[in-house]
Design the sequence.
């Protein structure tokens, strides 16, 4: 599915590392496949991120250092050296569009082969792109065979005319290059890039939700990323250049307090919904440049936070309406990302979307799950899971080759022992 951006490498044999270069934090998650085919978390690392603005690298040296810190922590917990990673891509340079392609089925018996599917997807991907953008993902949604709609796997069916509907995600060439350069300079190879909202979806959504219709909303520090699913496939993706850092900035401005203090206040006393604050609850906010502390009510703090959170959710609701699948979100909205931890956020979202709302935490994994059981790790864990999904086939091939080599070696050793009577 997303394999077109994944270059397969087995430097870290059978192990996949996700590198989430977020605006607020860098998260690194290391995983391997367990016997059940699920993902076993081996280790994780997190470090505050420097040198990023709204999901995009603006200072290479600072970003490299932050990545190295998080990687170092993940290496210690996992007990291995990380060599290659799958990175998440986000930012306002990312664009997405639904497209359609059509081809005539080539075989004389009209049975659809893999080559027909490849050709029709190639036809759908042929869109006019600005010269500074490149295609990151081409995600098949469904196929139409001689006007029969809703086909997911057309191979083997018979028909004359094959159409494909796909979701195309593009990104700025320069932004991707900067990420790859930065990761390389941090001593790592990039195996592939995945849109962050798709990675987060892998981390926290169930297949049932994706089937029924669900909207993932990743409330990050610099951006809020959304991905809508229906009947198991991606229908719409969008990125809004607002996130938790805007809430913090609003608090700093509103209370005339330093940013670092505003961040602490937000986490400790903040609430996104005035129904849940008590008018008699007060806290102390330190002033800028040594000015005196002032007493502030939590109700007043909420009047700063709530409008920003409403703005973010309203922009997401607008995006949902823009998609023709907006009224098909039977599974509701799943909130994830660090800013979803803000008190009252679920209730505010419920009021705005009028849909079932839940917080998405990576849970359906084994191993060191407690180290990643926070919405902040949704993207990191999802990158690992997506990595396995998308080159699972190649991994299987790798393991088969490995076991063939091992059995041949064992035979040779056996013969050697027999010859030399060992
Ligand atoms: N307990 C909490 N209460 C309120 N907000 C919180 C809490 N914990 C984290 N946040 C906020 O979450 C945001 C960071 O979220 P996250 O780690 O998902 O962002 P990121 O992935 O680094 O950024 P982005 O995805 O936008 O590039 C920050 O604005 C932070 O203030
Ligand atoms: Mg993020």
Sequence:
């Amino acid at each position: 599915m997303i394999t077109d951006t994944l270059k397969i490498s087995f430097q870290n044999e059978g192990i996949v590392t996700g590198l989430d270069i977020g605006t607020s934090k860098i998260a690194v998650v290391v995983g391997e496949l367990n016997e059940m085919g699920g993902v076993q978390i081996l280790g994780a690392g997190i470090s505050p991120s420097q040198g990023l603005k709204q999901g995009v690298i603006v200072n290479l040296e600072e970003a490299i250092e932050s990545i190295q810190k998080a990687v170092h922590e993940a290496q210690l917990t996992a007990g291995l050296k990380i060599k290659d990673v799958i990175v998440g891509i986000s930012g306002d340079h990312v664009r997405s569009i639904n497209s359609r392609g059509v081809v005539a089925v080539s075989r004389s018996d009209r049975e659809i082969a893999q080559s027909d599917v490849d050709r029709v997807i190639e036809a759908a991907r042929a869109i006019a792109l600005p010269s500074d953008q490149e295609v990151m993902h081409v995600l098949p949604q469904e196929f139409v065979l001689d006007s029969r709609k809703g086909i997911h796997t057309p191979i083997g069916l018979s028909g004359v005319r094959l159409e494909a509907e796909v979701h195309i995600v593009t990104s700025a060439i320069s932004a991707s290059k900067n990420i790859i350069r930065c990761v390389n300079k941090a001593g790592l190879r990039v195996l592939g890039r995945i849109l962050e909202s798709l990675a987060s979806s892998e981390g926290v959504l169930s297949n049932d939700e994706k089937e029924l219709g669900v909207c993932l909303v990743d409330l990050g520090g610099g951006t809020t990323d959304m991905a809508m699913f229906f009947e198991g496939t991606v229908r719409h993706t969008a990125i809004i250049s607002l996130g938790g850092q805007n809430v913090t900035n609003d608090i700093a401005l509103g209370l005339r307090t330093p940013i670092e203090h505003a961040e602490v206040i937000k986490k400790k006393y903040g609430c996104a919904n005035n129904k849940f604050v008590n008018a008699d609850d007060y806290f102390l906010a330190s002033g800028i440049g040594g000015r005196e502390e002032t007493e502030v009510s939590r109700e007043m703090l909420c009047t700063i936070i709530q409008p920003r959170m409403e703005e973010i959710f309203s922009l997401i609701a607008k995006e949902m309406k823009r998609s023709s699948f907006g009224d098909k979100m039977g599974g509701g909205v799943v909130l994830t990302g660090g800013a979803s931890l803000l008190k009252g956020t679920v209730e505010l979202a419920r009021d705005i979307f009028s849909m079932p709302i839940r917080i998405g935490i990576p849970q359906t994994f084994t191993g060191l799950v407690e180290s990643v059981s926070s919405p902040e790790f949704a993207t990191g864990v999802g990158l690992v899971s997506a990595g396995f999904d998308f080159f699972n086939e190649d991994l299987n091939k790798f393991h088969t080759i490995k076991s063939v080599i091992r059995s041949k070696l064992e035979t040779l050793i056996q013969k050697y022992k027999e010859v030399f009577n060992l």
In short: The pocket of adenosine-5'-triphosphate (ligand 1) is lined by residues 22-25, 49, 55, 90, 220-223, 243-245, 248, 263, 266-267, 337-339, 341-342, 376 (CB under 6 Å). The two ends are 51 Å apart (CA to CA). The longest strand covers residues 133-145.
